[in-house]
Amino acid sequence: MGHSRAVTGVDHDLEDTRGQHWTLQWIKGGNRCSAVEVDEGILQHQRGHEQFDKVLMGLLQRILDNNKRVQEAACSAFATLEEEAGEELSPRLEIILQHLMCAFGKYQRRNLRIVYDAIGTLADAVGGELNQPKYLDILMPPLITKWHQLSNSDKDLFPLLECFTSIAQALGPGFSQFAEPVFQRCITLIQTQLLAKIDHVSAGVQYDKEFIVCSLDLLSGLVEGLGSGVESLVANSNLRDLLAQCCMDDSADIRQSALALLGDLARVCPIHLLARIMDFLNIAAEQLNPAQLKESASVANNACWALGELAVKVHREISPVVLKVVSYLVPILQNPEDLNKSLLENSAITLGRLGWVCPDLVAPHMEHFLQYWCSALCMIRDDFEKEDAFRGLCAMVRTNPSGAVSSLPYVCRAIASWHEIRSKDLHNEISQVLNGYKQMLGSGAWEQLHSKLEPHVVQKLSRYQV
What we know:
The chain is mainly alpha-helical. The protein has 25 helices and two strands.
């Protein structure tokens, strides 16, 4: 969400409560102190918690220092501490929130951005632990007051929108009491900025794409946090049409955030996308063509993921774009060394999901991509998305068994990449596929195949009674 900045370092010495000096690396430009790290060993040491609390309290007290540069250094260092300490902060939430909100009331405009960052990072670190009335009573009233004070053209909204994104994700359904005005304001900000892009006089503000990006990201946070609880808000808004506009925007940053929101909405309330489903499918598919891919891999990554999410929700509705999408995904799988890992994994998962919902369309082309695809599937960690991809593999093999014969060693290695398949149905499907090929090939050819596989692969395959 933020901009990457060139940074320079300046040392500051901050005293903790014992009068010792903690030298912190202050990084200008709003980036975080990188020199403060919490060694996991400290937290396990018999006096680790005591030491940790002393460091924590030393930083919290310095956060309330009157010197602006000390405020900035301490807050920046604390954000790094939060990232490293994670859930260790949960028992100390009340004292942390009290100090941060005291700083929120004390800091001037420039340093407020760092407080927002520290609050957002805290929410990311402790997650649902934050969802308790005693914590929300400290945290939310000052933030909501600031939310109402800032106009729709005030750039100080950016860090507040980002902060709310983390809070919404952390609180989950607990954010529902704050959701409606936040949702509506995001819609208003997007509408206003889309108008300002065409006619800033009518809009009453100068165009700034960052308002759209931050609003889309916050809407994604709301959808992720509230789940199906966001459905009524989406139903009573024009989000679908605004989202279609944003997915086609000439700014890669806007398209990236819009396509992420498209995938999030596909997960929780796909029914509200159906009226423009072909628009969304065509727009997302076009982000994967090789020309677009060179311009922005991050946009392509989100488009690829969104298409996979749509496929498992709208099923055959996706059939008009399936072959186009497959033709774009195969070159990605064939040239993995040039691309980031996330795009490669999403391409493998989405190809599997397309094969699962439309095996009749994808399976005839299987022999052209199966080896590359199976190699990519081996790299994906066990989770429900990998399960979907393997359901697609099984569906395609059932549809076109001969198309996989020449690639069977790759299929076997992909199956062996599972540590554990939790779905009993999928486990049985894979077992049927393997035993089907054993029967199809005959015992001699099956033994020959086995002899070419690595011992650990053969051992893993034994789970499937072959």
